[in-house]
Structures are given as C-alpha cells and as structure tokens.
Amino acid sequence: MNVMRLIAAGLAFAACSSIAQQDFSKVEIGTIKLNETTYMLTGAGGNLGLSVGEDAVFLIDDQFAPLTDKINAAIARITPKPVRFVLNTHWHFDHTGGNENYGRAGALIVAHENVRKRMGSEQFIEFLRMKTPPSPKPALPVVTFAGAMSFHLNGEEIRAIHVARAHTDGDSIVHFLGGDVIHMGDVYFNGFYPFIDTASGGTIDGVVAACDQVLGIATDRTKIIPGHGPLGTKADLQAYRDMLATVAARVKKMIAEGRKLEEITAAGVSRDYDDKWGKGFIAPAKFAEMVAMNLIKNR
User: Fold this and answer.
1) Per the confidence metrics, is the pTM higher than 0.85?
2) CATH code that applies to domain 3-234
C-alpha cells in the first residue's frame, strides 16, 4: 500500500473517530532491515522501529490495535521472542493504538511523562476537529521519563531523548548508538508537509530545533526513520529542516507586518516547496494556515 494512502487512511480514521469504520484487512506490514539487530516496519499509521537480539525484542510505536497480530507475525519472521518493551514516540493514536494489546500481553510500555498524561485524559486534536477519550489502563505507559533514558539491549545502547514542544509536548527521538539509526517519530515527515499538533503543545520552532539536535548527532551514514514516509538520510532531514525554517520565517515576517490569517494562507508562503513537499495529506494552503495559527498562538 502506498505510504500516502496509509497516512490518508490514518486521517480518515481520525475524521470518522471510529476504528470500526476502517478496514485494515488489506494492510501489509513491510520489513526493512537496517543492520543485524535493527529494522524499520511499515504498515498503517506511524513507522515502527524494532531491535532484536539475545536480550529482548524492543519495539518503537505500535500503530493501530487491529494490526497487532500482523505486526507480531512480521516480528515472528525475524525472531521467535515476544515483544518485551514498547516505547512510544508520542501519544497519537496511530502510534499508540496497539498499546493495550501489548500491555495486556506483558510488554513494558515506556514514554515521556507527557504521553501518559495525555493518554490518561480526554484530548482534542484541533486540526482534525476530533476528541479522543482517555486510554484504558493497560494502554498507558508504566515507565515514564522527563529528559532522557537509555536501554542497554542487544549489544548496544538505545537512547530515548525528549525534544521539547515539537510535534507535541511529549515527543522522543530514539537513537540506536551502536547501529547508527535514529527514529524521529512525527518530528520528521519525510517527503511531505508535516502535521504539528498545536493543541498538544507542538510548535514549528520546536520541530526545527529537534531537527537541529538530530542533525548534530547524525552522520552521513545514519539511517533516519521518520514517523511517516520512507527511510531518510541526514541530507533528507536537512532539506526538511530548511524548508520548515524558511516557511516559518516568512510567516513570522507577515505576522510582524500585521497581516491577517487569511492573507498569510493565500500568500503562497510555501510556493517554491510545494512541488516537493505539498503532495501529501496536508495541502499547501492548509500547511500555511497551520504554521500561521501555530506561530500566532505561540507568540
């Protein structure tokens, strides 16, 4: 299934606000081997990271609940061991929908402390005009952290690092130090304009800052797993970061000039980027509106 269709399916689920209305029967879980212990899995919803080895199976995000069996089947083709750890990059349903299944099966769910806070209470995603109810107890992270934490598994250090007020207020990037792999969650949308969840504390300046942080630790050989889109490189991430910073600077200038939201949205602030980045689920005008509303709110 094409990645853009997968994302559209995720947002269609959001618009419908009922997973029962989605057909996941045709979704296939793809597996990309990054090194001897680390994999990227695709499907519907956010891209997954996976570490396997002599110690444990470590999973980053878990997409939607109906896909748990398919995800487990994909993992079983790599290792017979069950998932022992699940780390959520942030709270959104297309990354945490399988939490309850994994929690009930005995996996230890880990996330930034704001992920547990948001999953434990009703949320409203303004951009999607949808409410999400509190998650059941087995879906909630049972281990939380504020700044960073490390897992010493499968022959390397796996370091989760909180990046402040980026896609949400609870984002973590996950750095596989030995394998030179970084999972960025929805801080990074590779190949199209991102969704920044202002209602959950996200800011475009925080996304740019998080990209700068990753660019500072990545090498030209680093494999970068985005929340959505194909596997990326440092050069890909640099282009994404520069696009966001440029559009944000243009919008800030217009806000300082006293321009209204409607004027900013219609001004074509991303016009020179639209051919490359504007063919995803967020149209250029909607992206401009999102950035402007984010910057106005966070002045």
Assistant:
1) yes
2) 3.60.15.10
